[in-house]
Amino acid sequence: MPTTPPEPTTPPAACLEIATFRTRAGVSRPALERLLGQAQAWLEAQPGFCSRRLAHDLEQDAWVDQVEWRSAEDARRAMAAYPAAPFAEAMNGAIDAESFRCWHAAPVATPRP
Questions:
Q1: How far apart, in Å, do the first and last CA atoms of the chain sit?
Q2: How far apart are CA 43 and CA 61, in angstroms?
Q3: Which CATH number fits domain 15-105: 3.40.50.2300, 3.40.50.150, 2.40.110.10, 3.30.70.100?
Q4: How many helices (H) and strands (E) in the chain?
Q5: Per residue in 20-78, pLDDT tens?
Q6: Domain chopping of the chain, boundaries
Q7: Residue 81 carries which DSSP code?
Q8: Is the CB of residue 43 less than 8 Å from the CB of residue 49?
Q9: Structure pTM?
Protein backbone atom coordinates (compact mmCIF):
# COMPACT_ATOMS: atom_id res chain seq x y z
CA MET A 1 0.00 0.00 0.00
CA PRO A 2 1.52 3.39 -0.98
CA THR A 3 2.21 5.83 1.78
CA THR A 4 1.71 9.56 1.69
CA PRO A 5 4.97 11.48 2.00
CA PRO A 6 5.21 13.66 5.11
CA GLU A 7 4.36 17.33 4.82
CA PRO A 8 7.47 19.45 4.35
CA THR A 9 8.52 21.30 7.47
CA THR A 10 9.86 24.23 5.46
CA PRO A 11 7.75 25.97 2.83
CA PRO A 12 9.14 25.71 -0.69
CA ALA A 13 11.55 28.43 -1.67
CA ALA A 14 10.18 31.10 -3.99
CA CYS A 15 13.51 32.87 -4.45
CA LEU A 16 17.04 31.62 -5.04
CA GLU A 17 19.89 33.96 -4.18
CA ILE A 18 23.04 32.95 -6.01
CA ALA A 19 26.39 34.56 -5.32
CA THR A 20 29.75 33.72 -6.86
CA PHE A 21 33.10 35.03 -5.67
CA ARG A 22 36.80 34.45 -5.25
CA THR A 23 38.75 35.26 -2.13
CA ARG A 24 41.43 37.92 -1.97
CA ALA A 25 45.03 36.77 -2.15
CA GLY A 26 46.28 35.59 1.23
CA VAL A 27 42.88 34.56 2.65
CA SER A 28 43.19 30.98 3.88
CA ARG A 29 40.44 28.44 3.41
CA PRO A 30 40.09 27.91 7.21
CA ALA A 31 39.69 31.67 7.72
CA LEU A 32 37.04 31.83 4.98
CA GLU A 33 35.24 28.78 6.39
CA ARG A 34 35.02 30.46 9.82
CA LEU A 35 33.37 33.47 8.18
CA LEU A 36 31.05 31.25 6.15
CA GLY A 37 30.01 29.51 9.38
CA GLN A 38 29.20 32.85 10.99
CA ALA A 39 27.21 33.78 7.89
CA GLN A 40 25.32 30.47 8.12
CA ALA A 41 24.21 31.15 11.70
CA TRP A 42 23.16 34.70 10.76
CA LEU A 43 21.24 33.52 7.68
CA GLU A 44 19.37 30.87 9.68
CA ALA A 45 18.11 33.63 11.99
CA GLN A 46 16.75 35.73 9.11
CA PRO A 47 12.99 35.66 8.41
CA GLY A 48 12.17 33.61 5.33
CA PHE A 49 15.43 31.63 5.25
CA CYS A 50 14.89 28.10 3.86
CA SER A 51 18.33 26.63 3.13
CA ARG A 52 21.86 27.27 1.93
CA ARG A 53 24.35 25.35 -0.19
CA LEU A 54 27.99 26.20 -0.76
CA ALA A 55 30.25 24.85 -3.47
CA HIS A 56 33.88 25.45 -4.38
CA ASP A 57 34.90 25.35 -8.04
CA LEU A 58 38.33 23.78 -7.94
CA GLU A 59 39.24 24.71 -11.51
CA GLN A 60 38.55 28.44 -11.09
CA ASP A 61 39.14 28.65 -7.32
CA ALA A 62 35.73 30.29 -7.05
CA TRP A 63 32.87 29.86 -4.59
CA VAL A 64 29.16 29.47 -5.30
CA ASP A 65 26.78 30.37 -2.46
CA GLN A 66 23.12 29.51 -3.02
CA VAL A 67 20.51 30.59 -0.48
CA GLU A 68 16.84 29.68 -0.76
CA TRP A 69 14.30 32.19 0.55
CA ARG A 70 10.57 31.96 1.08
CA SER A 71 10.14 35.14 -0.99
CA ALA A 72 12.12 37.73 -2.95
CA GLU A 73 11.13 40.27 -0.29
CA ASP A 74 12.73 38.10 2.42
CA ALA A 75 15.91 37.94 0.32
CA ARG A 76 15.93 41.73 -0.14
CA ARG A 77 15.40 42.33 3.58
CA ALA A 78 18.30 40.05 4.47
CA MET A 79 20.51 41.75 1.89
CA ALA A 80 19.64 45.15 3.36
CA ALA A 81 20.43 43.88 6.89
CA TYR A 82 23.73 42.24 5.89
CA PRO A 83 25.99 45.31 6.34
CA ALA A 84 25.13 45.40 10.06
CA ALA A 85 25.93 41.70 10.57
CA PRO A 86 28.86 41.24 12.99
CA PHE A 87 30.94 39.31 10.41
CA ALA A 88 30.12 41.48 7.35
CA GLU A 89 33.20 43.70 7.45
CA ALA A 90 35.55 40.73 7.72
CA MET A 91 33.65 38.83 5.01
CA ASN A 92 33.80 41.80 2.67
CA GLY A 93 37.53 42.05 3.35
CA ALA A 94 38.02 38.38 2.45
CA ILE A 95 36.15 38.54 -0.87
CA ASP A 96 37.67 39.88 -4.06
CA ALA A 97 35.10 42.59 -4.85
CA GLU A 98 35.87 42.46 -8.59
CA SER A 99 34.84 38.81 -8.72
CA PHE A 100 31.64 39.11 -6.67
CA ARG A 101 28.33 38.56 -8.49
CA CYS A 102 24.90 38.12 -6.91
CA TRP A 103 21.44 37.71 -8.37
CA HIS A 104 17.98 36.47 -7.46
CA ALA A 105 15.99 33.93 -9.46
CA ALA A 106 12.62 32.22 -9.22
CA PRO A 107 12.82 28.41 -9.16
CA VAL A 108 11.27 26.70 -12.16
CA ALA A 109 10.01 23.13 -12.09
CA THR A 110 11.77 20.88 -14.56
CA PRO A 111 9.23 19.51 -17.04
CA ARG A 112 9.09 15.75 -17.32
CA PRO A 113 8.83 14.09 -20.73
A1: 27
A2: 24
A3: 3.30.70.100
A4: 3, 4
A5: 999 999 999 999 999 999 999 999 999 999 999 999 998 989 999 999 999 999 999 99
A6: 15-105
A7: H
A8: yes
A9: 0.83
